[in-house]
Amino acid sequence: MELRNFLVTGGCGFIGQGLIRALAADPANRIRVVDNLCAGKPEALDGIRPLHRVEEPDWADPAIQLLVGDIADAALAVKAASGADAIIHLAANTGVGPSVQDPRADCMTNIIGTFNYLEAARQGGVRRFVFASSGAVVGEVTPPIVETLPACPVSPYGASKLAGEGYCSAYWRTFGIATTALRFGNVYGPGSAHKESVVAKFIRHALAGEALEVYGDGSQTRDFIFIDDLIEAIRLSLTADSAAAGEVFQIAAGRETTLAEMLDSLLPALESEGVAGIRVTYTQPRLGDVARNCSDTSKARDILGWTARHGLPEGLGRTVRWFLGRI
After folding, report:
1. Is residue 72 included in any domain, yes or no?
2. Which residue, 184, 270, 196, is CA-closest to 222?
3. What is the mean pLDDT of residues 74-85?
4. Rg of the chain over all Cα atoms, to the nearest angstrom
5. Which among 148, 177, 147, 163 has a CA at the least distance from the CA of 246?
6. The domain that contains 28 carries what CATH number?
7. Catalytic residue at 157?
8. Are the beta carbons of 240 and 251 closer than 8 angstroms?
9. Nearest CA to 90 among 28, 181, 25?
10. Would 28 be classed as within a structural domain?
11. One of 117, 157, 167, 171 is an active-site residue; which one?
12. Which helix (H) or strand (E) holds 210?
């Protein structure tokens, strides 16, 4: 069935604005956003469509409708989800560090918030639900990470995302909502000015003349995915057949990259744009971080028809140029 009414939680954030830009390319699509504006800003959606901040949303409105509020608010979830064809649940407490500092807040946001929107989907008859998960649910394993590995999270963040995956599975098997959980790799790219992930943070620090601080010796590995590739995975999840319902997919580039190797691409990209004198420092490993991360994305290829297309040097170059355009 055709999907036209889309609810995006966390829509003012980095991934949300990229997704909304893609959805808004079809003028027949209607877009509703829930965001507490803690990290994302409404200005991120400027130039995509007119933006209406609303209390009582109406799908007849062709503008992007913004409901300001927290995903822990169950009543707001029901109101926002009413009449939606699909929910893309991106809003979350993101990252290992904040979850270690305040595990309870991470639980309330990521577990209760996800439950609220699944329950709102059930009450509102929403047909599709895409959940932003993370490879952190698996924990410390020898890569590549595949969906069949037993989950053993290292951090509270990983545990909260695992709970979300569990609820998605239950709401498909019990209530018939076609849920899909996407385990995002380390996402980077244009639009990430406020993101606390390593690429965005390093670029901000370099442009401010500050040292780039590496936790540990730089040998830890991550699987970096460019924002455009991630958005395409979400879009394909929205239109996938029933084989994707209730399933979990690894969404990453499928390449294991050490932080030192990432810096070997990032530093030249910065220097080629005139950013010189960059300092790199090393400190103690961070509590809750895993040593290695890389995904096997063959399940996403086989069921969703998705593969990552952007290499790291190309993606980092585009990201650096976008940041410089903001100065």
Report:
1. yes
2. 184
3. 98
4. 19
5. 177
6. 3.40.50.720
7. yes
8. no
9. 181
10. yes
11. 157
12. none
Contact 324, 273 (CB under 8 A): yes
Residue 114's identity, in one-letter code, is: T
Helix ranges restricted to H, the chain: 14-24, 74-81, 96-101, 103-107, 113-124, 156-175, 198-207, 227-239, 259-272, 298-299, 312-325
Helix (H) / strand (E) element for 250: namely strand 247-251
Rounded Cα distance between 72 and 115, Å, is 9
DSSP secondary structure string for all residues of 27-59: TT-EEEEEE--SS--GGGGTTTS-EEE-SS--T
Query: Average pLDDT for residues 172-192, to the nearest whole number?
Result: 97
Whether 27 maps to a domain, the answer reads yes
> pLDDT tens, 106-151?
999 999 999 999 999 999 999 999 999 999 999 999 999 999 999 9
Task: Tell me, yes or no, whether 109 lies in a domain.
Answer: yes
| CB-CB contact of 40 with 11 (8 Å) | yes
* Residue 327 scores a pLDDT above 70: no
Structural domain range at position 163 = 5-188+223-253
Q: If you search the block for the tokens 């980077």, which residue do you land on?
A: 188
Tell me the C-alpha distance between 149 and 81, whole Å.
Answer: 33
pLDDT of 269 reads 97
Side chain identity at residue 52, one-letter code: H
Question: Do 147 and 197 meet the contact criterion of CB atoms below 8 Å apart?
Answer: no
With b meaning 16 or more CB within 10 Å and e meaning fewer, what string describes 172-210?
A: beeeebbbbbbbbbbbbbbbbeebebbbbebbbbbbeee
Domain count, the chain: 1
CA 256 – CA 254 distance, rounded (Å): 7
Is the overall model pTM greater than 0.85, yes or no?
yes
- Mean predicted lDDT score pLDDT of the chain: 96
